[in-house]
Amino acid sequence: xxxxFGKGRGSDRLVVLGGKARxxxxxxxxxxxxxxxxxxxxxxxxxxxxxxxxxVVHDGLVSDEILDLAPSSARRIxxxxxxxxxxYSQDEINxxxxxxxxxxxxxxxxxGGDPFIFGRGGEELEACREAGVECLIVPGVTAALAASANAxxxxxxxxxxxxxxxxxxxxxxxxxxxxxxESLARPxxxxxxxxxxxxxxxxxxxxxxxxxxxxxxxxxxxxxxRADERRIVTTLSGLPEAAAALxxxxxxIVGEAMALARAGDGRPHLETLIRxxxx
Length: 279
Ligand SMILES: C[S@@+](CC[C@H](N)C(=O)[O-])C[C@H]1O[C@@H](n2cnc3c(N)ncnc32)[C@H](O)[C@@H]1O
Description:
This protein has helices at 44-51, 64-67, 90-102, 121-131, 143-151, 181-184, 200-209, 239-243, 270-278, and strands at 2-5, 14-18, 28-33, 55-58, 75-78, 106-111, 134-138, 164-168, 190-194, 217-222, 230-235, 250-254, 264-265. By secondary structure, the chain is α/β, with parallel strands linked by helices. The radius of gyration is 21 Å and the shape is globular. The strands form three sheets. A six-stranded mixed beta sheet has the order 8-9-12-10-11-13. Strands 5-4-6-3-7 form a five-stranded parallel beta sheet, with helices on both faces. The protein binds S-adenosylmethionine.
């Protein structure tokens, strides 16, 4: 099956380029979380949705290993943000999903991590609802969970972290995020910052100015759960310098429970763990 948009990307018209659009029953959109990168962290439900896909519309953070789980006949469309070439706007992605589903196709919108954690899944869900297209959600392992698991540092911990907050490191229109710094600066809680690598210095400055102790343990995890994962253990005061050494995608995690974090490279591969357990 191959299908695409006619009259350029802005068009609502879907043109079937090869094969036949499914004529049986209405199409639907599955918003599927692909997890943080390690294919072993994909849920069984996500795998089943992928295996039934006729069209897969995916982000740049989704690995080829995971994309390969879709049928070879499924059309794959990357809507990754590109620096050099035009990338699809969110509105174009919404219209693309709706148009494919209205053609009767089974559409999988595959996103890194979880679709509803800084994944713009809500906007795509709303677009489907407005168009009367059925939209189902398959949750995924969000990057924070993989980062904390591999570092051996829990996001909540009795006595050290009674709450965990996921925040974005970027305002919707770019620049510094407008967050409740007073509340995030209170002790005994974990703050996980998505998309915050390039904003590490102003974020650390805000937390310090709001009263969070500079010695609060902090962790940066780049490429969590991927073969090239890197973890740097530092403190809130050391966050800007540590962040400057990485290029992302990465999470900044600040909180007393990060005292348990182990620095290092690489993720524990299942095969390695089994070998070690048998030895
Ligand atoms: C647009 S958000 C998508 C988050 C995703 N929906 C999730 O639940 O993990 C992209 C940001 O998530 C974080 N991220 C995603 N995958 C990551 C990974 N494997 N390791 C570290 N951070 C990751 C980074 O902060 C990145 O800038």
